[in-house]
Structure to design on (320 residues):
């Protein structure tokens, strides 16, 4: 792991230092006019930058890996575990959503069943009312018949008193009428018994329907309770997801801060070494050099007045 880290840091530093290189300008005065000679590049800056990138990267990474390896390994393992937990939570959310859809379908079916039962109740009530009306009509007709028969009997009795001769015939008629009355009474009793039975059956049906309605209401209450529990579970899962996302963001911020600290250490070491090398070259060539570090870049400005006074060997080094 340390070798891989050294390689990554070396390539990263080389790519950054390619952008740090620049051309150096030499200003030469000729009377009042100033001529800019571009394209003259100091020889020791690219050599120094190319040679010291690998050594600086090895030293910095060897010092930093001892402190950063443990943190990076722990952060990577925690991020993988958090990602797995996120996947599991997403699967649970999908399952809960499917269960909610199924329960909504069940609620719709139960509502349809309730509507059908209410329609059946209305039909049964209407039929009961119709039956009662019919029975009342029949009873009225029977009563009218009975009244008519009684009137006839009275007339017959008067006729018997008046007509003694026709007593036999009247007796026969009376017997017939009595038989008819008996039959009518039996029919009335049977009808009354049938009505009682029908009423009992209707009462039983009403009780059964009421029991079914109570059961359906209990089922609806249970389903509503389950829906509330599942909504609470969904809220808890969403809170857990938010907490996990916050943890991931905090871990990413920690990693970015560690990388920034490493880069700042590397840049500081590069700048110090560049200053040391420039002072060494200044002592060797014997010319005054001015060091400027704007925007974290090391530039050297050479004055034309001191360029003529340099020895021949220093001029060749600079031009090379």
């Amino acid at each position: 792991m340390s070798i891989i880290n050294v390689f990554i840091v070396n390539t990263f530093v080389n790519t950054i230092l390619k952008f740090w290189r620049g051309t150096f300008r030499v200003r030469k005065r000729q009377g009042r006019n100033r001529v800019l000679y571009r394209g003259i590049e100091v020889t020791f800056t690219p050599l120094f930058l190319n040679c010291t990138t690998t050594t600086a990267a090895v030293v910095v990474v060897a010092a930093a890996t001892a402190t950063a390896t443990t943190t990076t390994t722990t952060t990577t393992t925690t991020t993988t575990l958090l990602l797995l937990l996120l996947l599991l939570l997403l699967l649970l959310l999908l399952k809960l959503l499917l269960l909610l859809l199924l329960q909504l379908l069940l609620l719709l079916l139960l509502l349809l069943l309730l509507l059908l039962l209410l329609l059946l109740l209305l039909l049964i009530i209407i039929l009961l009312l119709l039956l009662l009306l019919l029975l009342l009509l029949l009873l009225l007709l029977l009563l009218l018949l009975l009244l008519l028969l009684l009137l006839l009997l009275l007339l017959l009795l008067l006729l018997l008193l008046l007509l003694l001769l026709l007593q036999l015939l009247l007796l026969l008629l009376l017997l017939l009428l009595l038989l008819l009355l008996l039959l009518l009474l039996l029919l009335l009793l049977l009808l009354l018994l049938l009505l009682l039975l029908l009423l009992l059956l209707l009462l039983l049906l009403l009780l059964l329907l009421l029991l079914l309605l109570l059961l359906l209401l209990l089922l609806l209450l249970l389903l509503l309770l389950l829906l509330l529990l599942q909504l609470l579970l969904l809220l808890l899962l969403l809170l857990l997801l938010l907490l996990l996302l916050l943890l991931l963001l905090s871990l990413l911020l920690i990693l970015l801060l560690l990388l920034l600290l490493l880069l700042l250490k590397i840049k500081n070491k590069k700048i110090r070494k560049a200053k040391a090398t420039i002072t060494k070259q200044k002592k060797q060539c014997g010319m005054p050099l001015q060091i400027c570090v704007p925007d974290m870049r090391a530039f050297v400005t050479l004055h034309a007045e001191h360029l003529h006074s340099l020895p021949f060997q220093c001029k060749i080094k600079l031009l090379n």
In short: Helices lie at 2-20, 44-162, 167-285, 304-307, 312-319.
